[in-house]
Structure to design on (391 residues):
């Protein structure tokens, strides 16, 4: 009996000790000094968004350039919510920088009723009718989250004098986030339906009867990468053509390997993956592997082509920055990719293109003389008010 009593005390002490290891903090405090929280289990309250290339816990009151923590589920969670598209970089076998092996404590996801509700809400798409609303979810969610923080001092890319990448630091899309929360559990889940009133022009309307699109839906479904590259080749010197070709060429000739891996599947892109963070067994022309993933369940038809262009532009800008843009911040990089995405929507004669949070990037009814300013307004609003990026 005495032994049982002592054993119970030990179990209790162990459980209490584990509980004490969870640090109560805030999104902003973590972002002020991510390294100080590296490896710690934390409890935070925040708003979670799963957008086009976002899966983040955000706080508008933070003052950092990237005002969000990247969110990830543990490996093999097989949950639904996450970004629609993403590019993550990892050191290739011939990487010229130093690769530091990182040992992290595994996290087990508690798939409670709260989590299932959380995951379901964040993976519910917005019904946008016959227009394109790329990566648009119906809800954003507030909750208390517990998980492991992975933090680095800086997520900025390190380059040598030739512009070659010699250091990778961050997490999530473009490795741009200095902190990542690998989720263990959620509680206190509440949701807010996102208002798309400003962008639902096509809801309830008949399908657009104007000129047919340049890219056929049949070829997009059969081979989206081939469709993109044929589309880009056919543009020649047309407005936006060279930039679209550059984005398509980032993936390399059809069927080749140029250090860019493309995964187009119905699986979500939401897990922290040791396989994609350690040194790859593949070589690459610049010593970096660009892992591009697209969730086909959230990107159908022409929306997938737009996503391929957007992420292709990112890969091109990371690998071979345009003159004067090697040190561009995340705002500038995203802005340029969205400009190109809007150009493709216009060239392909899309009726409309909208982004998460009800920001309009393209509408065929816009007067030609106003379209450039309207596109700028949509992108600027989205980046500053939805993604909380700073110019």
């Amino acid at each position: 009996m005495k032994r049982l009593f002592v054993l119970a005390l030990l179990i209790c002490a162990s459980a209490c000790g584990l509980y004490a290891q969870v640090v109560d903090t805030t999104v902003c405090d973590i972002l002020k000094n991510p390294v100080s929280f590296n490896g710690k289990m934390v409890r935070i309250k925040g708003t979670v968004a799963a957008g086009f290339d976002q899966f983040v816990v955000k706080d508008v009151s933070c003052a950092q350039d990237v005002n969000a923590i990247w969110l990830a589920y543990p490996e093999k969670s097989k949950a639904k919510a996450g970004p629609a598209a993403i590019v993550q970089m990892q050191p290739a076998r011939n990487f010229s920088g130093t690769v530091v092996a990182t040992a992290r404590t595994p996290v087990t996801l508690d798939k409670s009723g709260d989590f299932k509700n959380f995951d379901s809400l964040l993976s519910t798409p917005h019904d946008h009718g016959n227009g394109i609303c790329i990566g648009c979810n119906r809800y954003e969610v507030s909750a208390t989250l517990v998980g492991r923080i992975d933090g680095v001092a800086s997520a900025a890319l390190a380059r040598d004098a030739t512009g070659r990448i010699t250091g990778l630091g961050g997490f999530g899309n473009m490795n741009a986030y200095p902190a990542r929360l690998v989720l263990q559990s959620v509680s206190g889940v509440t949701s807010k339906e996102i208002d798309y009133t400003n962008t639902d022009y096509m809801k309830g309307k008949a399908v657009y009867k104007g000129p047919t699109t340049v890219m056929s839906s049949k070829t997009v479904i059969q081979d989206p990468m081939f469709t993109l590259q044929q589309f880009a080749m056919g543009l020649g010197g047309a407005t936006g053509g060279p930039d679209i070709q550059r984005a398509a060429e980032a993936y390399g000739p059809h069927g080749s390997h140029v250090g860019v891996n493309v995964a187009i599947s119905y699986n979500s892109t939401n897990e922290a993956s040791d396989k994609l963070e350690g040194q790859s067994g593949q070589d690459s022309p610049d010593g970096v592997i660009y892992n591009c993933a697209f969730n086909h369940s959230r990107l159908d038809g022409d929306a997938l082509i737009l996503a391929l262009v957007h992420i292709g532009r990112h890969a091109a800008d990371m690998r071979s920055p345009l003159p004067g843009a090697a040190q561009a911040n995340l705002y500038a990089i995203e802005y340029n990719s969205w400009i190109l995405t809007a150009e493709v929507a216009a060239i392909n004669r899309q009726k409309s293109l909208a982004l998460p949070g009800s920001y309009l990037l393209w509408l065929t009814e816009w007067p030609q003389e106003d379209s450039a300013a309207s596109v700028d307004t949509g992108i600027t609003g989205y980046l500053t008010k939805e993604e909380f990026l700073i110019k």
Confidence is low (pLDDT under 50) at residues 4-20, 205-213. DSSP finds nine helices and 14 strands in the chain. The radius of gyration is 22 Å.
